[in-house]
Each structure stands twice: as structure tokens, then as C-alpha cells.
Amino acid sequence: MIILGISCYYHDSAAALLVDGKLVAAAQEERFTRKKHDPSFPENAIEYCLTEAGISREQVDYVAFYDKPFLKFERILETYLAYVPKGIRSALKAIPVWIKDKLWISEQLREKFNDQVHLLFPEHHQSHAASAFYPSPFEEAAVITMDGVGEWATSSIGYGNGKHLEIHQELHFPHSLGLLYSAFTYYTGFRVNSGEYKVMGLAPYGNPTYVETIKKELIDIKEDGSFRLNMDYFNYAAGLTMTSKKFDKLFDGPPRKKESKLTQKEMDLAASVQVVTEEIMQKMCKNAMQKFNTRNICLAGGVALNCVGNGEILRKTGVENLWIQPAAGDAGGAVGAAYMAWHGYLEKERSADNKTDLMSGSYLGPEFSNDHTQQFIKQNAYKAEFLSDEELFTTTAKLIDGQNVVGWFQGRMEFGPRALGHRSILGDPRSREMQKTLNLKIKYRESFRPFAPSVLRNHVSEYFDLQVESPYMLLVADVSENQLKELDETKEGLEKLYQIRSGIPAVTHVDNSARIQTVDGVENPQYFKLITAFYDLTGCPVMINTSFNVRGEPIVCTPAEAYACFMRTEMDVLVIGNYLFRKEDQPEWPEKDNWKETFELD
Question: What is the mean pLDDT of the chain?
């Protein structure tokens, strides 16, 4: 039984493939088109998934699309009508796109597959809920979804048990936690649907001075986590901006201009909306656990990528077991839609052992052999050294210990927004300069952005206040007290940035926290062996792990893209499979001098 799940036409288009109920492949379209957050029909991602499984389009039995286009269009029309004549400019931009493409997804799918293929359209939040529960390790769990908006729903609470999954409560548009956070993303000068994680990273530099203002003027939060927004302050329902003039007046000025200097105001706004978001997330979780008499929780939807909020759920709600879909945003909707077809529509049985999830470490994308890399090297007359496995790990560990920045390209590409040791840039967490070097010379991004640590699973509690696994880098926890150093507490805002806060300063954020990836030898043996070699050499079982890309670009997919990123930046070493490239050995790269100037920043 072949089931293809698809999400597209909003942002982060993706495809996912189930073969007899097993998730065998999944990828975002952006990785193939090189357009970050590409919303277009995932033609390349579909082709990859089918090729990976050795399946033709004619063999596909079911195609499951991640939402109901007509129901979403109904919400858009009703919203514009409710705001007439205010929303006319926005309507004139949006409606022709719907009439041209988005409404006719059924016809498009039949043309691309065959007339006999069965088409299924679960609701958007059903797809999110299915992506959270069905691949989770749990036999039963409360399931919470939170994002911007699907058809009408913006958040949902449900319960899964075995093959059964039912949504019991929903919040509806325009009252949306995701859109509240996006409004502050817009107002603080970042791009909506891609800059929310920047607001989360900026929050620790500020003070939550606006929390009471937000609660008094913008949002009414109930004890069960439900809420209503005061739409006088927002413009997203029918306008072309996220916030209104009344919002500007409340916070003493217009939105920050893109790329302009960050001030204490933006930092305080980020801290404040983060506090409010965490409160709502926690209340929703407490409500769901009480309602369904469970201590297992599964999360999905874009808000579930707020790893600071996830960490607070773990610490403050009484949850015993928390599992978050690694591709929690719309890309993961493709996985959820496929699982809805298998378990929900076809009613196939499901078993769980309460230990192991079904995401295969989220390593579900393309893989390239050493033979492929060797051919790539020969065709381009590049220089690389082939190393045995043992040499590979010890040599790379020594290079990282020597303060080299290493591009690490191994195995199948990750599905979801996080690099998890297959398409990663690595560095020494003990370095006083590495955070600055990576931001300014490798990633070409804002200096305030933190970097995540990868840590050997059996050493995590020695360095962080975390007692559970975090394989998908979706939990934030404090750095252990024994690792911390005394600080100058008088520092404010960005003055906090380059203080040496701990024994692993390059991965310690300004609030002494870290977004942690735990690594074991099961799902990622290559990365585990590398960190182990680094630990054997240095006594430190932690490594910096940031995604293999520069700002504004998707994570690399192919060896050619990895090599180009390596040469365009000030990265020192590139490792692809068993081949090691040193920068000084490579021929001159023609784009290097104007790379930063010509690249479109986001």
C-alpha cells in the first residue's frame, strides 16, 4: 500500500511517503529548488520520495493533501467580506492565486498521478495532530497543535489511543497564538514565517516589561489556555501588514525597519511575547492532561518549534513524556496527511513501545555515496583526501579541537528545519571566539543568534539541566551550574553577548540556556563516533552544531551545494562521506569575493 502525503501552497512545501505504513522518505521542496520556505507544488520532493522507494507514480494508491482547500478559501472569503472595504487590496492579491491554482489541487493531482488514485483531504490541524501522534512512541497521549491558521482552526487539543485520534477542542481564526507571535516578529523587523526563531533567540537579551500591556490590551487568556485577541491592534485578517496603527501607538512607534539597528525596545518586546506564549502553551498542556487523564503529550504546528516554550512545558506542567514532531511546521503536515490515510481512513492498526518513535531520527532525505563524491571531485578537479572510518573521526576531531570550522555532510538529509548531524557545520563549544566566528564569517547572520550543542546522550546531565532525550533539538534547558562562571550583572542588551558564561561558552545563550541535541549511536552512528572521538581527545562530549547553510539559504542537499557553501564562506574544512577537503588545497572560487554582497539576505 503506497501513500503519498503532500503539503504546499503556503510555505515549506513537502512530500512524504508511507509504504505499508512505514515512513520511508520525506523532504521539503526548498532543498531541491534552493528557494527558502518554497511554497510551490513539491514536484522535486515527490520525485525524490518515489525514487527513494523505487516506485512509479502509477503505483501510488493514495495521495493525501494536508488540508481542505475549499474550506480554507471559505474562511478567506468570509474574512474579506467581514472587513469590507478594508480588505480589498489584500483580496485583489490573494483571490486570483486561489482561483488559478490553489482550489484545483484535485485536478492537479489526478493529472500528475492517474485517474484511479484515491485522493484524501484531512483538515490542516488533523494533519498536524496525526504527524504528532502516529509516529510518536506513545500508545496513548494528549495531542496539541498550535500554528498560524489552517482552514479555520489555529490551535487544537485532541487525544490519540492506538489507531484512533480525535480532536476535541479548537480555537478559530483570527484568534491565533502563531499569528500573535508573527505579529511581534513583523513589528520587531523580521520576516514573518521565517524570523520567529530570531525573536525567540532575541528574547533573553530583553526584559518582559510589556507582558501586562499585552495581556491588558491585546489578549484575554483563560485558564484552559484558550484566548481571544483584540483585533483592533492587528491587521492580518484582511490587510497587507500584521499590525495596525493602533498597535504602533500602543508600543510608541512604527515597526522596526528591516536590517536596522536592534534596540532595547525590540529585545523587551521579544522577551514579553515569549513569556505570554509560554503561559498559553503551558495552560493548553495542563488542560489537555487533565481532560484526558494522561501525562503523555505530543506537539505539532509551527508554535511547537518554540523550543524555549517546549522546555518550560517539560519543567512546569507535570508532563511525564513529551514528544514533538521534528518537522512541526507545515512541512510535517505531509507526514501527518499520509498517516491520516493509513490509520484514520484505512483504519490500519498501530503499535507503540513507549520508547522509540517512527521518524528514523528524521533522516529521511537524499543520501550520496562515496562513489558519487569521488566522481564529483574528479569532474571538477578538486582536491580531497580519502580517509578510513577510524581516520575520519580522529582527524576531524583534531581539526575541531584546533579551532577549525568543519562542514559535515553524511548520510540521509534531515527532514524538518534542524540540522541533526548529517548536514551540519561543527565547531568547538569551549572556544571563546567560535560563536562570533560562526555568525559573522560563516553564517553571515545577526551576532545575537545562539548556537546549539550536540552532546553524547549519556553525558547530557553533566552539562545541562536535562534528564530526557532531545534528539531533534526541540528542547531548551539551562547549562549546569557546575559549568557556569561569574558574570558582570550590570551588562544590558547586546552587551551581554560576548561574556564568557560557562565552560562551553560558544553554546551558552545569554540566559545560560542551550537548545540541546542528544546523540546516541543508534540513529546517527557517524555523528556519535565523531563526538566520541572529540570527547576522547579533549574530555568534552559536546560539539557546536549549526545547519549547513548561510542566512537566507536552505540547508544544503547535495555534495555540490555543500562544496559551494564551503568555498563561499570562511569555513576551514569540509567532510563529505569519507572525503576530507581542506580550504587551502582547493582551486580559487570565483564567487568568493562578492558572495555576501550578491546574496539576498532575509
Answer: 93
- The residue among 436, 273, 375, 339 whose CA lies nearest residue 136 is 339
Q: Which three-class secondary structure state does DSSP give residue 418? A: coil
Q: Residue 9 region, left (φ>0) first, then alpha (ψ -120 to 50), else beta? A: left
CB neighbourhood size of 394 (10 A): 18
Beta carbons of 344 and 320 less than 8 angstroms apart = no
What lies within 8 Å, CB to CB, of 371 at 6+ separation is none
pLDDT at 238: 84
* 429-430-432-438 Cα dihedral, nearest 10 degrees: -20
pLDDT in tens, 312-346: 999 999 999 999 999 999 999 999 999 999 999 99
- 594 has a pLDDT exceeding 60: no
Neighbouring residues of 523: CB distance < 8 A, sequence distance ≥ 6? 360, 361, 363, 471
Q: DSSP characters for 115-130? A: TT-EEE---HHHHHHH
* Each residue's pLDDT tens digit, 433-458: 898 889 888 888 777 888 999 999 99
How far is Cα 23 from Cα 350, in angstroms, rounded to an integer? 13
Cβ neighbour number for residue 99 with a 10 Å cutoff: 11
Rounded to whole angstroms, how far apart are CA atoms 379 and 589? Answer: 16
> Do residues 330 and 18 make contact, with C-beta atoms less than 8 angstroms apart?
no
Instruction: State the Cα–Cα distance between residues 98 and 70, nearest whole angstrom.
Output: 10
Alpha helix segments (H runs only) across 293-352: 307-316, 332-339
Strands 513-519 and 385-386: unpaired
- The answer to whether 141 and 297 have CB atoms below 8 angstroms apart is yes
Cα–Cα distances (Å) from 82 to 91, 96, 152, 238, 331, in that order, read 12, 19, 15, 9, 30
Q: Is the pLDDT of residue 352 over 80?
A: yes
β-partners of residue 17 are 4, 25
Q: Where are the domains of the chain?
A: 370-598
Pairing state between β 164-172 and 153-161: antiparallel
The set of residues, in sequence order, having a beta carbon less than 8 Å from that of 153 and lying 6+ positions away, is 123, 124, 125, 145, 170, 171, 172, 173
pLDDT of residue 394 exceeding 90: yes
Kindly state the cell numbers that stand for 424: 551540519
CATH fourth-level superfamily of 370-598: Carbamoyltransferase, C-terminal domain (3.90.870.20)
pLDDT value, residue 87? 73
Residue type present at position 113: F
Length of the chain: 602
CB burial string 475-496: b at 16+ within 10 A, e below: bbbbbbeebeeeeeeeeebbeb
Q: Under the phi-then-psi rule, with left for phi > 0, alpha for psi from -120 to 50, and beta for the rest, what region is 507?
A: alpha
CA distance 569 to 443: 8
pLDDT tens figures, 283-319: 999 999 999 999 999 999 999 999 999 999 999 999 9
